[in-house]
Design a protein that fits this description.
26 strands, 42% helix, 5-stranded mixed β-barrel, single chain, globular, alpha/beta, 806 residues
Length: 806
């Protein structure tokens, strides 16, 4: 518990007394003033610093309040806007700033001016206060839903990232309470006490609203009973009041429940709810809630299943028709269909497809559904931050609904659809819960047979659903959730794979979508290759499809404006007429080797990328300077590389440039793009050593690997994406850690044949491959020269070599 900064005494603050209104700190409040004294006080504040003292009148009916009629506790507020409505009235919008108390009235004419003292708030950030805040937020959401005065979603931004006291003030300002109660909340300066008081007030207000609703329902029930008695006088016992041929709603519901083939617990709940509905007034709000609940129970596919296709050859044919490559995923689906032929009721599979955008993760779900003969539903999880989106709301809330999982199952109409959970790595969380934690039950084969939605309030079997989860990156996904998936990585496509996808999938698809025939448009292989190389730079094929679409539009325009048999052949020569100047060029090929410049390979959620690492030395004090918007991990990797080089400075005779005379500056171009990860370690170390020994680096070699202080090379991730990036940019020789050798089994055969891949264990091996001259030979050759050069430096002594000192 702590107090805020010392209180401040403020003199000559204009005071405006308010009727039936209490302003709280951290809130924007509009009100209208018309009294002459209030108008003059406003004008005085606007002329100075726009600061007003606002306090509520004890008795709102008094037109000319005296000091004794005004509460001493109020709020220092800043005038945001003042609009003149007519000759007499002004609409004012103020922002409450701080609590303050009136010490003395300095002037009463023509308006009140006071001496005020800021009130120190006693903040309490204890666990008890945090837990109480969570409860108050839940009660506040219920209050708004019941009172239907304000939309809770519109208040969320104001509640986020605020202290407990500020949140309590914002909530207090939105409650419809008596003036005395609001004034009590304003005068409670201890945040824990204020939040406790708020909890008590909200509970009472919710009870009052519920009581009001029950009275209305009771009145409706009395009216119905009176009507029933009058009906019995007209119609003898046993004769129905329903029109002839009109089915009885209750009997219909019972029949639907019997035909739904629910499990025992769900059936009991349904019949119990029908009994409740039977005893309720048909037009009451509670009856509508009952009907909605019964409709959801009846409409769920408790036993409806799609008849699966078990022909493996047909399934393989469908998968190959829809997608090129992606062998791992196709193989896993065919394995599952094979198991279905031997096991009658196997558990559903949960696949996690991880890869860069545009490689076909989402479309693969629809293809799998077609290959297996199941229904397909898709749920996008991007931006979902409420646990109720997954589990649903409890029926006590007005407008409650089941979660999105149950909604999608109902939409599918079967209990064994292919269920695509898209962009699971884009989920977030806030005070309303963590949807990722709720998903753990859905994606656990041991638990999802008894999935409990808060609205349905009974178990539903999800064990036969085939869940496919997609993500661009693994890191944002919580580990327990990731553990429940069978993760299959889908890396980017090679140039040849993109060419085949464009020829057999994208071009025919877009020609059909634009109404073009084969006689109207033809794209040569060389034109498609030029689009891939010079107009797109991506792991997937989304931009490639966009460029093909652009060409089709231009050809359609010519076909319509000229003649229907117009024919266009797209070649590399006329491609610029359709797509403009090429956007990308190979910047690293055919460039001369440089000192202190090395090529590294990075891995992002969009695929692999090549990075240039530049190192230079400037006069300074031996510091390491890092620029290029490097992340914390990459900065630590650079420091480890620098320390490794410093540890070798006596062995390599580079003390003259690494002592106290020079700063080493490391820069990674494209400074607006954030860069992170440890895999740049060997690249940075190579660039530093190249600079200090003045040996150029072979620019036809790219590298990736983490470095230790002893020079060992540790494994890194994203191997296939990095290899594809290097190959795409024309690099044909790469260096990777020895421990990553196993990751190369998934590299396409053509790339393996056309690339020279070196696996290294130590930094010495990296230097022997990357530097254009042998480092040790150069050191031996120049050893005497360097020693003589150091000894001749005037006024400075060479630091003693610890290897030669006893």
């Amino acid at each position: 518990m702590q107090n805020k900064k010392d209180s401040e005494i403020i003199e000559n603050i204009p005071l405006i007394p308010l009727r039936d209104l209490v302003v709280f700190p951290s809130t924007l409040v509009p009100f209208i003033i018309g009294r002459s004294s209030s108008v003059q006080a406003l004008e005085s504040a606007i002329e100075k610093d726009k600061i007003l003292f606002l306090s509520a009148q004890i008795d709102p009916s008094i037109d000319d309040p005296r000091p004794k009629d005004i509460h001493a506790m109020g709020v220092l507020s800043k005038v945001v806007r003042a609009i003149k409505i007519d000759n007499k009235n002004i609409k004012v919008i103020v922002e409450g700033k701080k609590r303050a108390r009136i010490i003395e009235y300095l002037s009463t004419y023509p308006f009140y001016q006071v001496l005020a003292k800021e009130i120190m708030e006693i903040e309490d950030d204890s666990i008890e206060a945090r837990e109480m805040l969570k409860r108050v937020l839940t009660l506040f959401e219920d209050y708004l839903k019941l009172s239907q005065t304000t939309n809770f979603e519109s208040i969320i931004p104001a509640l986020r990232d605020n202290s407990i006291g500020r949140v309590a003030d914002i909530i207090s300002s939105h409650l419809y309470l008596p003036l005395e109660e609001k004034q009590n909340l304003l005068e409670t300066v201890n945040t824990l006490e204020r939040i406790r008081r708020l909890n008590f007030v909200l509970e009472n207000e919710i009870l009052k609203i519920h009581s009001k609703i029950r009275k209305q329902d009771k009145k409706s029930s009395i009216d119905k009973a009176t009507f029933r008695r009058q009906k019995q006088k007209v119609f003898p016992s046993g004769i129905s009041f329903n029109k002839e041929g009109q089915p009885n709603e209750i009997e219909e519901l019972r029949e639907k429940v019997a035909n739904a083939k629910m499990h025992k617990d769900a059936e009991e709940k349904a019949y119990k709810e029908i009994e409740r509905l039977e005893s309720m007034p048909p037009m009451s709000a509670e009856a509508t809630v009952c009907r909605n609940y019964l409709d959801w129970l009846i409409s769920l596919p408790w036993n409806n299943k799609s008849r699966e296709k078990r022909d493996i050859k047909e399934a393989e044919k469908i998968l190959n028709e829809d997608h090129h490559a992606l062998e791992k995923v196709k193989e896993r689906i065919l394995e599952y269909l094979s198991i279905r032929q031997l096991v009658k009721y196997p558990k559903g599979i949960i696949l996690g497809l991880v890869g860069p955008p545009g490689v076909g993760k989402s479309s693969l779900g629809r293809s799998i559904a077609r290959a297996t003969g199941r229904k397909f539903v898709r749920l996008s999880l991007g931006g979902v931050r409420d646990e109720a989106e997954i589990r649903g709301h409890r029926r006590t809330y007005i407008g409650a609904y089941p979660g999105r999982i149950i909604q999608m199952i109902k939409k599918a109409g079967t209990k064994n659809p292919v269920f695509l959970l898209d962009e699971v790595d884009k989920m977030s969380m806030d005070f309303r819960g963590d949807p990722a934690s709720a998903l753990m039950e859905v994606l656990d084969p041991e638990q999802n047979s008894t999935f409990l939605d808060h609205y349905i309030d009974t178990d539903f079997d999800l064990s036969q659903v085939m869940f496919i989860v997609t993500a661009n990156m693994v890191e944002p996904i919580p580990r327990p959730l990731l553990d429940r998936m069978e993760v299959i990585r889908i890396p980017g496509y090679t140039e040849d794979e993109k060419l085949q996808i464009a020829k057999h999938f994208l071009v025919p698809k877009q020609m059909n979508a634009h109404g073009l025939k084969s006689k109207n448009l033809k794209m040569t292989d060389m034109a498609l290759k030029k689009i891939i190389r010079e107009y797109t730079r991506e792991a997937g094929v989304r931009n490639l499809e966009r460029e093909i679409k652009s060409i089709c539009r231009k050809v359609v325009k010519k076909v319509v404006s000229k003649r229907m048999d117009y024919r266009e052949i797209i070649t590399p020569k006329n491609l610029e007429k359709h797509l403009g100047i090429p956007r990308y060029k190979h910047i690293y090929i055919d460039k001369k080797d440089e000192i202190g410049v090395a090529i590294g390979i990075a891995w992002t959620e969009f695929g692999g990328e090549l990075l240039t690492f530049e190192v230079t030395k400037v006069y300074g004090k031996g510091n390491l300077i890092l620029t290029g918007q490097l992340g914390e991990i990459m900065q630590e990797s650079a420091q480890a590389s620098y320390s490794f080089v410093r540890g070798k400075m006596y062995e390599w005779n580079i003390t003259d440039v690494l002592h106290k005379d020079f700063d080493i500056h490391i820069h990674v171009p494209e400074g607006a793009v954030p860069k992170e990860g440890p895999s740049a370690g060997i690249t940075i170390a190579t660039a530093i050593i190249s600079l200090l020994t003045e040996i150029p680096i072979n620019k036809k070699i790219a590298m990736s690997g983490e470095i230790t202080l002893k020079g060992k090379v540790l494994p890194v991730g994203g191997i296939k994406e990095k290899i594809l990036a290097a190959y795409r940019e024309g690099i044909r020789e790469v260096i990777f850690p020895e421990d990553n050798r196993a990751d190369f089994k998934d590299i396409p055969k053509k790339i393996k044949e056309n690339m020279k891949i070196h696996f290294v264990k130590h930094m010495d091996e990296v230097l022997s491959l990357a530097l254009t001259k042998d480092l040790l030979e150069e050191i031996k050759k120049n050893k005497s020269y360097l020693s003589n050069k150091l000894s001749k430096r005037e006024g400075k002594e060479t630091p003693p070599n610890p290897r030669l000192t006893n």
